[in-house]
């Protein structure tokens, strides 16, 4: 089924204890769509600047990503520079240059408006609302956010959540949003606002899927002896999750659980190399192999 | 089969965001033996002072713990006072009064010397060595440690590890010990020193079981909406693990995986109330019920 993502397309520079890369392809919608493209065709709405390298356009097109919704704005592409220390779980931002993203107002091409699956990546909740207003209600809407919007625009974010089925966010983000340390209790607060499902991403501690009717699912991360760059792991997770769900068109809890596992697998590939490199070279047999290994890692 | 624990018996005072308790039963050998007693009979070697309340002796005896190895020393019982903030994963020590524990030198009663399962709880590695020297080599030896010994007595700790089958410790501890952030790589370092198995406790992120021959097992923590006091969770985990292993006498990886799950379940009971309260009221049907729930939380 049709899957649409609205989010950022960026140029990242990143330093980790394992190396440094400058001006590589980044952004939430980028990681999401490359990851989801392993399961389904993805439509992307976002904006880049006139300086956005043609090769990155081809990179996305080679993954079958539909770029009719990718606007080319006046000015430069959104840039992010960050570094990770010894503890790879936390990104330290060196700078964020919004550039064309500053005045981004998502325009949804007519043929995207009936998309059945929608992922609102981490952007201003007012823009997330605008997207929802301009579309036929999709079969399933998931959204992400970040500390910045939780703190600066809680009311707009709550309006978004009213319209959203699945809220996908980090453990630190849901704790901040709900003002509650216990993750289950924090999810219950989210359920009062609209979403029926909360997915909590916990970095190398895995992910939780919690449902309004009491469903609890806990998926450990894939165990790896080498992590090079965690950038994009969360969006790759969301891409694997939504890509799988939309390819199966199965909205049962059991289907969502399997989707969390695919999200986990895709995130594990993402962190193995800088930027989306590993995701770009991925074959379906790699995914199947890793899934088989994952099953061995968790069975008892 | 016979299970022996050598470690501390203490009187704890603890404050968490959910309340405060003064002078409750604590100590690594205490939590371990109460937890393990759900699966098997436990022999305990430790020391208390003359002030140790008789009621706590009865508490342990009621769980079938063999206290012939519990020495009553001149002076006061080991005391620990700590608090937990919002983040229940980290204990902040207010004071540690070693008292009789200061000059503790474990004496192993003759009938304990042939114990087939041995857990060396977190004590001075020199004492852990002394215990090993004074016993027939058990079928299985596991040990714990803490940051203090890793930093102050790394050589003694390495001597212990030479004699140990399973090293059970926290993620932060193994990172410190191996000077390595990646947990699999850190475990590989431990394998060069003796142990064939490493179990890494990760608080509410669960536990990892890693084997020298490449086995990887990842067990999420039991999801709970209320945690009152994490004190003793690690030792309750170890008690559930070793109690189950010794009750089954099964040293296969599959047996160890099941034991990690029982450790996880016992730790989840431990944190539900202050001190060992919840563990003390536990019935075997509670364990079976929670195990059934746990299975529902992880299946996909």
Structure description:
The structure is a homodimer of 300-residue chains. The first copy, chain A, has 300 residues and is of the alpha/beta class. The first copy, chain A, has one domain (3-298): UDP-N-acetylmuramoyl-L-alanine:D-glutamate ligase (3-Layer(aba) Sandwich), CATH 3.40.1190. Helices cover 37% and strands 24% of the residues of chain A. Chain A has helices at residues 28-36, 54-62, 125-133, 147-152, 154-162, 171-178, 183-191, 233-248, 253-270, 277-280, 284-298, and strands at 3-6, 10-16, 19-26, 42-48, 66-72, 79-84, 91-97, 117-120, 140-143, 166-170, 197-201, 207-211, 216-219. Chain A has a nine-stranded mixed beta sheet, with helices on both faces. In chain A, α1 (28-36) crosses α8, α6 crosses α7 (183-191) and α9 (253-270) crosses α11. Chain A is globular, with a radius of gyration of 18 Å. In chain A, 51% of the residues are buried. Chains A and B meet through α7, β13, α9 and α11 of A and α7, β13, α9 and α11 of B.
CATH topology of chain A: UDP-N-acetylmuramoyl-L-alanine:D-glutamate ligase
Number of domains of chain A: 1
Residues in helices of chain A, as a percent range: 25-40%
The second-level CATH architecture of chain A is: 3-Layer(aba) Sandwich
Structural class of chain A: alpha/beta
Largest sheet of chain A: 9 strands, mixed
Low-pLDDT runs of 5+ residues of chain A are none
Mean pLDDT of chain A: 96
Described by the principal axes of the CA atoms, the overall outline of chain A is: globular
- The spatial strand order of the largest sheet of chain A comes to 5-4-1-8-9-10-11-12-13
The CATH superfamily of chain A turns out to be Ribokinase
Largest interface: A-B, 35 and 35 residues
> In terms of quaternary structure, what is this?
homodimer
H/E order of the elements of chain A?
EEEHEHEEEEHEHHEHHEEEHHHH
User: How large is the count of helical segments of chain A?
Assistant: 11
Radius of gyration of chain A, CA atoms, in whole angstroms: 18 Å
* Share of β-strand residues of chain A: 15-25%
- How many E-type strands of chain A? 13
